[in-house]
Amino acid sequence: MKLYAAAAIVLLSHVAESFVHPTTTTVSVSTLSSTAEPLVEVNNDADEQKKQKRQQLKQALLSKIGSPSSNNFISDPLLVDPMTKEPLSLSLKGPILGSNAGVRLTLKSASDSERVFEGRSDAYINLLEPISDDKDEKTSVSTSPILASLLTLTPPPVRSLVANISSNSDLEYIPMRDLFTDPSVSFAYERGWRQGFAAAGFPGADKEFDLAKEYFAPVIDKKRSAGEDNVVVDMSCATGLFTRRFTTSGEYDRVIACDYSDSMLTEARRRIRADSDIASSNTQLDLVRCDVAKIPFKSDSIDAFHAGAAMHCWPEIEESLKEIHRVLVPGGRYFASTFLGTYFQNVANLEKTSNGGSDVEPSMQAFQYFPTVEGLRDLLLNAGFDDDKVDVEVIGAACVIIRCEK
């Protein structure tokens, strides 16, 4: 324990330092559609022409993502306040200058003017928390990525110590969530990290995408036959490994990629910009920062919902699955891959040993350890899916493929 105490002192000094000298970060922001026309700089000195051009561009951008509501304000047909589930009005703010300049987007609750969210066309929509949130509430360790990664790699006693201290401070730490806020993890994700999942039996991104597309096909074909647009969500999208495949497939009218991590979404946006096939795609692509336990979409609005190698990283697993069931349309489909708990047995054993032989409380675990297929089925049934519409399959040593229909 002396070692843990010493580590705790060092780590806590980092915490204190982060509050005394906070790191300046970019404002969390939003994405419109990736298919929006490039923003062209107006090279005319006439103020009136600039003003008219700016207004035209604003209206064009709003038309990409918004539609008039019964209350005569522009709203996205899907996005809602993650807490109240009420519609969000959309407005553009700030000058449109430069050929590659992003446009600031403001989303305001229809009934509560204090709940305001922001975004940017060259980044993502931040629906994780409103900008006007009470400053007395806890701040996630994810706002300090270096500290987040250090804490995830420390033994449970140190994690618990920080968590206990943070109960009386502004700091909140959840290992399975905050590890992926580290920029180094985002950088490594498609540079060897994700490829390592093959040892557990994961079929590879191309094959997994084909399995998901095949499972989604009936509901997508039904919407297409009815002449209606379809929507697929890629939850916990990480660096956009599957997002890019959904977008360039030509099968989906709108793709919404979601993640909790700022650094993952930043890397995803970088890769999207570099993909010429996405630039020429007619699919509307939006990136959204959010919590899967508080999904910011209308009920019964999503046709297909994908979560690749993600569920084991969701701290509030029960609430998250219930939210997925809520947002799916009747007949909508959920496809996911995750790890069976046996894959993390060494990690779980090390945590228990480091914790003096006692079980680590779930909030301090590195991952969700799903012990059995039956246990996973129970989670899905409790979320609202019917037994005859749930399929849980194990591939290889510990890769779980989940298919559910609402």
For the largest beta-sheet, the strand count, sense and barrel status come to:
13 strands, mixed
**Distance between termini?**
49 Å
What's the rounded overall pLDDT mean? 78
Sequence of secondary-structure elements: HHEEEEEEEHHEHHHEHEHHEEHEHHEE
Give the amount of beta strand, in percent. Answer: 15-25%
Shape: globular
Structural class: alpha/beta
Count of helical stretches: 13
Strand order of the largest sheet: 1-2-3-4-5-6-11-10-9-12-13-15-14
Low-pLDDT residue spans: 1-43, 135-139, 141-169
Rounded to an integer in angstroms, the radius of gyration calculated over CA atoms is: 22 Å
Oligomer: single chain
Number of strands: 15
The percentage helix is 25-40%
Features:
406 residues, alpha/beta, 13-stranded mixed sheet, two-stranded parallel ribbon, 20% strand, globular, disordered N terminus
Note down, in words, how this protein is organized:
Helices cover 36% and strands 20% of the residues. The protein is built from 13 helices and 15 strands. The strands form two sheets. A 13-stranded mixed β-sheet has the order 1-2-3-4-5-6-11-10-9-12-13-15-14, with helices on both faces. Helix 1 crosses helix 4 (156-166). It starts with a helix and ends with a strand. The model is unreliable at 1-43, 135-139 and 141-169 (pLDDT under 50).
